[in-house]
Design goal:
Length: 382
């Protein structure tokens, strides 16, 4: 009987249990054909707070904790020397969920035995010139790799023009969404509306989920809402530097607007289900464009109709499951929102189409299977 293939996947984000969903799903859908180990820092300085390695006793993947140094910097942090032990013993393939230009990505490439294929995942959809040593790091990691996974079409399009990428096998695999947690749930959505002091019946609720920052199109959405003649309510969920401006604007609209901050990830499905349509009006900036649009995929999974701009990866995330609109065209946004608000039938159609798209494209079993198929194709070539 053939032994299971041994996969080691390395990522600083694995310090959080929720972020190991890919590793756990690969172990699950591998059906015994893959033995998966997720290597994670024992401690990491997160964006909001320091994080100690979170462990769950029923994870299908093995979890190995290693030290991490200089973890306040995603570019400069490195793993402890014990990482070498996890990469060198009976491993069939190493997957690095670290960008190829960061020092941790270089460390994984250096410590992976030459006989073992290395695959890295990347989400860089902007053309950048990295200073030393990061430019040299990127070239080395790409040259050492057997293949790379792009987080979206715009990522792949961008990177194929950089040195070395076109010479390596690649594929596009989007981020995953828990389509069991994120699902249509009218009752929970109505409960959220009551908690917000709204009647469950009333004008449709236009939703926004994400950071309150200019590049996410908050200002555009405020302007567009003021143009609408169709009755509406609006729910903004998130947080960020524009919160004060947003609250001042909301005060002028009295009972029509609600703002929710500090929503934990597990609470997001309830909030999404309180919305009749989600808007993703992201605006491309000189140094930023949308990399994926997680809130769009999560809204689809909840059966919430989606209107979104054409920034970055959004057209590929939305496909034909939602409505795409020009980034800065207030009139087009107002017209599209009016159409959706005035037509329950259109909302039902978009809801059904979005849910089907999310399950087929973004569900974790689908995403995990795509990773394993790519890994198997690389191994079969050797």
């Amino acid at each position: 009987m053939q032994r299971p293939r041994r996969l080691v996947t390395v990522s600083h984000s694995y310090v959080v249990t929720l972020n190991r969903r890919l590793a756990n799903e690969m172990a699950r859908v591998g059906g015994g054909a893959w033995d998966v180990t997720a290597v994670a820092p024992r401690f990491f300085h997160g964006d909001l707070r320091p994080i100690h390695l979170q462990l769950d006793s029923d994870e299908p993947a093995k979890v190995a904790g290693v030290r991490a140094f200089l973890s306040r910097s995603l570019h400069a942090f490195v793993y402890g020397p014990e990482l070498h032990e996890h990469l060198r013993r009976g491993v069939d393939l190493v997957h690095a969920w670290e960008e190829p230009f960061v020092l941790a990505g270089l460390e994984v490439a250096l410590l992976t035995p030459r006989r073992v294929p290395l695959v890295f995942s990347t989400f860089q959809n902007l053309s950048k010139r990295y200073p030393p040593p990061f430019a040299q790091t990127e070239r080395f990691v790409v040259g050492r790799s057997a293949g790379w996974i792009a987080g979206g079409q715009t990522v792949k399009d961008n990177l194929l023009g950089r040195p070395g990428y076109a010479a390596r096998r690649s594929c596009i695999i989007p981020m995953g969404v828990d389509t069991e947690l994120f699902r249509p749930d009218r009752a929970s959505g109505e409960a959220v509306r009551r908690e917000l002091g709204w009647n469950t019946e009333g004008p449709p609720v236009i939703g926004y989920l994400g950071r309150f920052v200019p590049e996410k199109g908050v200002s555009l959405l405020m302007r567009v809402l003021e143009q609408l003649r169709t009755p509406w309510r609006a729910l903004f969920a998130g947080g960020g530097p524009m919160e004060t401006e947003l609250r001042a604007w909301a005060a002028r609209h009295e009972d029509r607007v609600r703002i929710l901050t500090g929503v934990p990830h597990e609470g997001v499905p309830r909030v999404l289900n309180a919305m009749d349509v989600l808007c993703g009006p992201s605006q491309t900036m000189p140094r930023w464009k949308e990399q994926f649009g997680r809130m769009l995929a999560e809204a689809f999974a909840c059966g919430v109709p989606v209107l979104a701009s054409t920034s970055g990866e959004i057209p590929h995330t939305v496909g034909d499951a939602g409505r795409l609109l020009p980034e800065a065209d207030d009139t087009a946004w107002a017209r599209a929102l009016s159409d959706v608000l005035e037509s329950p039938e259109l909302r039902r159609e978009l809801s059904s189409r979005g849910r089907e798209w999310a399950v087929r494209r973004f569900s974790w079993p689908v995403v995990a299977r795509a990773h394993l198929d790519f890994f198997e194709a690389l191994l079969e070539r050797r």
